[in-house]
Each structure stands twice: as C-alpha cells, then as structure tokens.
Design a protein that fits this description.
There is one protein chain. The chain contains eleven helices and two strands. By secondary structure, the chain is mostly helical. A two-stranded antiparallel ribbon has the order 1-2. The protein has two domains: about 90 residues, no CATH class; about 140 residues, no CATH class. The longest helix has about 35 residues. About 55% of the residues lie in helices and about 5% in strands. The termini are far apart.
Length: about 250
C-alpha cells in the first residue's frame, strides 16, 4: 500500500521542468512509440507538453516581469537549462577578443558613402514628426534597456511634456537632412551565446543596444516610410500583373 511499485530518478542534469511525473510520462511515451502505438503516444506527448507548460508558468509567475526583467531572464535561463553554461561563457574569451572580432566582421573596406537623396513627400519633411506624436510615444514608454547615453526610459516618460518639443525638432532635422547624430548610432554590444559551450567569438551573437531615443526614431522611420513603400510596391506589382492578364 505504501511502497511505490515504480521509482523515477531525477538528476541534476535534467532541466527543472522535468519533474518525476514528467519523466515517468516520457518513459511511457518512449515505450508506446517502440511498440508502434502512435496515437496513444501522441496523446501522451500532449499531456507532457501541458505539464511542462504549467510548471514553467508557475515558476515565471513568481517573478515580477515589469519591474525586474533581469530576474525574469535569469529564470528563463534556469528553466531552459542554460544558466550553468552561461556562467562559464566569459571565462575563456575576453572582451578585447570579442571587440576585435566584431570590428572585423562589421568593417567593409570597399564601403563608399552613398549620395544624400531627397525623396518626394506630400508633407513637409521639416514637420513630419509632431510634438504630440513624440509626447504619446514617450508617455507610453515601457521599461527597456538603456544605451550608452545612460538616459533611462522612465526618465523620458516622466519628462515627456518637456522633452517632446525639442526631440520632435531634432528628429525632423535628422529626417530632412538624412543625418543621424553620432550619439544615436553608438551602441553597447551584449554578446549572447548561441551554443551551450562557446569556445570562439563566432559562437556569440552580438546584441546592439542603442539609446532609447534612437530606437524611437527607428520605429517612426519603419512605420511611416518603409512600410508604406513596401505596400505601394506590392500594389504596383499587382497592377502590373493585372495588366499582363488583360
């Protein structure tokens, strides 16, 4: 009555979401697959996925995502079993080696500066970004990482009534002159391991962290310039296909 008929051993090499119940179901699923009972194995695999999802959801619910993003990503690494590998990532490769590697792959010796082009626009380029638009963007900024200018998102959100007008003028000047301020192009690079045990600089993915203001301007350019151009190009292509059909 009290002695278990079967036992399941969970070791430190198993991910945290592999509980004894999940490990038992995984063994049962393997037995069903080996015996050719595909449908029952698929149903059991669904139950395993739901059990893992419930465990991860319960673990992540204990972390305050909005106020502590660092703890959230630490918990994600722990749940995916990557934390113990990442602790040793930076011991073999120094920051100088990574800097030299990124400088090498990011430099084009044949690069030539393109000509500054003026594109036709129905509205005046000097007033493309309005003060009210910048205020709405700043007022709804979510917590995000800070760039090299060390201006946090909460500071821009708090001072949005004051910062909206000068930032709108700077962004309009940047758009009309096709010039990006040097401070907005500077970024800190965070190397993220692409494999469990990286042993070369190529095993790291560079995550460029620009300033919050630069990211705001990028979103405006993508939404107001790039997306409309892609839509117009798609519509013109459809018109060409219609003429060919006629």
């Amino acid at each position: 009555m009290y002695y278990p008929e079967q036992s399941v051993t969970v070791t430190s090499s198993d991910p945290p979401y592999v509980t004894p119940v999940v490990k038992y179901m995984l063994r049962q699923n393997n037995k069903l697959l080996r015996s050719g009972r595909i449908e029952k194995a698929a149903a059991l695999a669904t139950k395993i996925g739901l059990a893992i999802e419930d465990y991860n959801s319960a673990e992540l619910s204990r972390v305050n995502v909005m106020s502590n993003a660092k703890s959230m990503w630490s918990k994600v690494r722990q749940l995916t079993g990557r934390s113990k590998h990442l602790d040793n990532c930076h011991s073999t490769i120094s920051a100088e080696v990574l800097n030299d590697h990124y400088a090498t792959i990011s430099t084009d010796v044949h690069y030539t500066v393109p000509r500054v082009k003026s594109t036709c626009n129905n509205c005046d380029a000097s007033s493309h970004v309005s003060e009210w638009q910048i205020f709405n963007i700043l007022d709804t900024l979510r917590p995000t990482s800070t760039g090299l200018d060390n201006i946090p998102a909460w500071f821009l959100r708090t001072g949005s009534p004051i910062f909206a007008a000068p930032l709108a003028d700077i962004m309009n000047l940047s758009l009309s002159t096709s010039t990006v301020p040097k401070q907005w192009k500077s970024a800190s690079i965070l190397p993220v391991a692409k494999v469990a045990a990286p042993d070369s600089p190529a095993d790291y993915r560079p995550i460029s962290n620009t300033s919050v203001i630069s990211r705001i301007l990028e979103r405006i350019v993508v939404r107001d310039f790039i997306y409309p151009s892609l839509r117009n190009r798609k519509m013109s292509g459809q018109c060409c296909e219609c003429r060919k059909a006629q």
